[in-house]
Amino acid sequence: MLKFYARFEINEETGDPLTDHDMTQLHYTKITSLQKAVFAKFPDLRSFALTNVASVDTRDALYKHFGPLSQEKLRSIASYLNLVPISRHERRASQLEELNEMPLYPTEEIIWNESIVPTEYFSGEGCLALPKLNLQFLTLHDYLLRNFNLFRLESTYEIRQDIEDAVSRLSPWRAEDGGVYFGGWARMAQPITQFAVVEVAKPNIGEKRPSRVRADVTINLSVRKEIKSEWENLRKHDVCFLITVKPQNPIGTKYSHKLPFVPQVGLTTVRGCEVEGMLDSNGRVIEDGPEPRPILPGDTRTYRVWLDSNQYRIDMDNASHGGEDVYEGFNIIMRRKPKENNFKAVLETIRELMNTECVVPDWLHDIILGYGDPGAARYSRMPNEIATMDFNDTFLDIDHLRASFPNYEIKLSTDDEKKLVRPFRLTFQDVLAKQSSEPIKRTILVEPHVPPSRGPYKANEPKKNQIPFTPTQVEAIRAGMQPGLTLVVGPPGTGKTDVAVQIISNLYHNFPNQRTLIVTHSNQALNQLFEKIMALDIDERHLLRLGHGEEALETEKDFSRYGRVNYVLAKRLDLLMEVQRLQESLNVKGDVAYTCETAGHFFMYQILARWERFESRIKQRQGTGNSSPPVHIIDEEFPFHKFFDNAPQPLFKRNTFPEDLEIARSCFRYIERIFAQLEEFRAFELLRSGLDRSKYLLVKEAKVIAMTCTHAALKRRELVDMGFKYDNILMEESAQILEIETFIPLLLQNPQDGYNRLKRWIMIGDHHQLPPVIKNMAFQKYSNMEQSLFARFVRLGVPTVDLDGQGRARPSICNLYNWRYKKLGNLTHVENSPEYLVANAGFLYDFQLINVEDFNGVGESEPSAYFYQNLAEAEYCVAVFMYMRLLGYPADKISILTTYNGQKHLIRDVINIRCASNPLIGRPNKVTTVDKYQGQQNDYILLSLVKTRAVGHLRDARRLVVAMSRARLGLYVFARVALFKNCFELTPAFDQLMQKPLKLQLLPQEHYPTERLNDAIPSNPPMEIEDMPHMAKFVYDYYMEKVSGMKESQKMWQKPGTMRTSGSPTHKVPAHPGADDDTDDEELNQMDSEQQDVKDDVKEDGKQDAKQDANHDAKQNDKQNAKHDDKHDAKHDEPKFELIKNLVDEPVSESENTDR
Prior knowledge:
Elements: H1 2-6, H2 20-41, H3 46-49, H4 59-66, H5 71-81, H6 95-100, H7 108-111, H8 140-170, E1 172-174, E2 180-182, E3 189-200, E4 213-220, H9 225-232, E5 239-245, H10 261-265, E6 267-278, E7 300-307, H11 309-320, E8 332-335, H12 343-355, H13 362-369, E9 388-390, H14 398-404, E10 409-412, E11 424-428, H15 429-435, E12 443-448, H16 471-481, E13 484-489, H17 496-510, E14 516-520, H18 523-533, E15 543-545, H19 561-586, H20 596-622, H21 632-637, H22 657-686, H23 690-701, E16 704-708, H24 709-714, H25 716-722, E17 728-731, H26 739-743, E18 760-765, H27 777-782, H28 789-796, E19 800-802, E20 805-806, H29 811-814, E21 825-826, H30 828-832, H31 834-837, E22 847-851, E23 860-861, E24 869-870, H32 871-887, E25 894-898, H33 901-914, E26 926-929, E27 938-944, H34 957-964, E28 967-975, H35 977-980, H36 987-993, E29 1001-1002, E30 1023-1024, H37 1028-1050, H38 1080-1109, H39 1126-1142, H40 1150-1155
Parallel strand pairs: 10-12, 13-18, 13-19, 14-16, 14-17, 15-16, 17-18, 20-21, 22-28, 25-26, 25-27, 27-28
Antiparallel strand pairs: 1-2, 3-4, 3-8, 4-7, 5-6, 5-8, 6-7, 9-11, 11-12, 23-24, 29-30
Helix pairs in contact: 8-12, 16-17, 17-18, 19-22, 19-23, 20-22, 32-33, 32-37, 33-38
């Protein structure tokens, strides 16, 4: 690393980056100057001085000339030159060339090399040979190179986890014949029955590696139907791994996750490959397309894959020198989940950026590298700050505008109160004064203006914002509208998304020719943002959503590329129908509504001519006199009466001449807009293929384009080649995006004349909540890879706009986390609104910390590595959920959160057994981890903290902030108080939680919703719950009371003919109305089958989520998270279900048993 940075590509005097060409020229200059000096002073080296530069610039060549010299001669040369030859003059290997020749797939030599990919047990002590992401970087090349190396290593660590899991599940053992016998099965890996390299293409000119290497991999898919379908649906460019194992352990040997993995399974080789496609029965690749895929007979499937050309060349070189041919022994192919498997495309994007000239806007360059004035890109410091801007519908009224600028004097352009309605155009006098070097006056000139009416129909009225933005939100909106870099820090519930949407809307209306790119961390956040954008006054033909997450949009409209193409084509037909109706209303002959082109001619020669004739007649009738023209003139002369017959009548009110004239003009604007849109859609008539139309839509038509940061990284080359352009970037969830994935969206377009056209970069996030997910502790902490670009900018001192009013949670709940922020107050509605003033029905407190002791001597358990569970807390949470449902709380208003993935699955198990199939109770809205729930909220949160031995990763205050800020009205935390109260990092929150009793206080006499105020003393004394079994027994009794009450109410009236007689057979009464009359044995069998389904779900589905929750704890990098084998499952599931089954099933009377 020292050698690397000692000769880095940077000018040591100016700090400017040096290209490969610059480095070559410097190298030649040094060699030439050495040759000149030697030629002049040292005749013994005349042969060196006269030799071609390229033949003497390697270390071997220099040794050949300078090696035979005596020490005195070398000393005299060095003293004359003031340097030592050879080391300074040898040719330096180009970093870029090395990078381009580097295989992108990790091999076994890297994957299990502890010095390159450290284990998860990194203690934080000592140094590692890893690059760091701190505050400053030498050049953009240095910045990209560090990110490239770290991203590659972090991906390698995740691949190591997946390989260890999949191969362990296959249980490879040594067969009696010396071969490999697989004693298990894995969803994500299959034994290879046949492997063959089928093509090695010739190298391209100037390269040594083959241009393409293809191979065929054959496997036998005799597995369950859904797993077989997953393998058959492998898509083009999906990455798989080819693995060779030569196990030494005999059949039946047990594998242990505590022992080294590689020696246990005998793993010798790992190579990456990229799927081209599955082969059909004729040996041809089945292409992805609209046609249904052919159904292949049997279970044997063959895949055509691309191998890494660089790696193949290295392996063949080794084989030619006596090494083993690794391509003859592959016996396992492993696939990965698509969401976790995009590392190769991201690495290729970073490498491509390093091979091209990265042009970052001048105003942003130094800030990204961490140099200069961190506030230089703030809008108030930018030379092109805009003084006058239309804030559109940002302000509800003039009073709201005045309250939004408390430090400014407001001057109005008119005193007529009737005219003081939005939209408002604001001119900041201090900006004008600054630009003209005059004394600064903090004055705003407010000019209300009436936007031109778009037509006579109610549907033409623009949608308007209804949110009363706070002064800090207005400042964030103003900053986002101005050129430059804007950082908005948005604590939980402060309206980050609303601010983002208003910025987008204002940019759309102020700069109609500019295009805005929206980037978020997750599809969920992007969909939330998009749904709010659709509610504002933005023409939907200008909206476009890229990626695979648009299916989750809660709308019938499709905003994907092909969905927008279909919308445009359908809209074109609708508009042409309107043109035809207009033609018929004017009695014009001919088929003018056939195409957009014919419609354009119709507008030019028929519509425009009639309108110009109308305007001239109006002018003539107005005359030259001072008297106002008659009101009826407009109505009589208007040429499009018949077309607007379907508009609200009368079309012209005949009140005043100006009013009717404006109505006539709005009608013409409506017609003009029809033909303007048809002119835009004309290209879709000329472009015939869906692909060409979608590209045109992306490059020309769309004004607001949304995508995730991952999609931007994967599709950068495609977007650049297409000619994609944009002027503004808005990033939501910026603090959750990796540094490199934040940087890539800046470079999704080619520079124009050497300059980047980006004008605004708005980043919205909260660095006090959870950072990007990095699973390896060494990369996370030592290399600081979890630091987002947003957090680095904040650390550098880039000015931020801190939103300071939360409108999500009760003030009492907000106090649990507002200590983490500079200033976080409450909006008026959370203090005055009825739903915040009323208490939580059935609970004495709106939030409470409930102490949970061991159950049957067990607290926290770890059935497999890092799979933490706590049965007592799981049962307690579910019992409280059941209690809330019995009181009448809606299930969708309740979410159960936990800090560990193992606990999430345990709570789901308990729910499945206790109440999932009971229509009186059902399931909560969500059962998930705190990490996964960031960015979401619900009215009532039940939170399980799981740990009883060590605090674990909740010690990170950022995770605590997320956990405490998800609830709006009620938060109930289940934890071992003795453990968490002594944690210094959690003190501000737990001090408040511990001010209330640590035993749950209930008011079972109440029902949801209650009328009791939150601060009122209840009429009945509260019921104190001692522990979890007490709560479970109480809920059971309360449930039976509810059911019996319902049966009593049913006895009041019975349908004729259904009266039971003494001779009727006796049936068991179900526990709830509508249940099946099963015997006890049938119920137990059903329960066992549900348990088995749950266990299968835990094993197969839990893997991805398990990786998310334990990322930030030195012992919680879930190497085995949800990766426990069947034996581990049996060990922890059987006793767990036994405990659940016996928890409250105490002996009951015969009559109670009949009721059950």
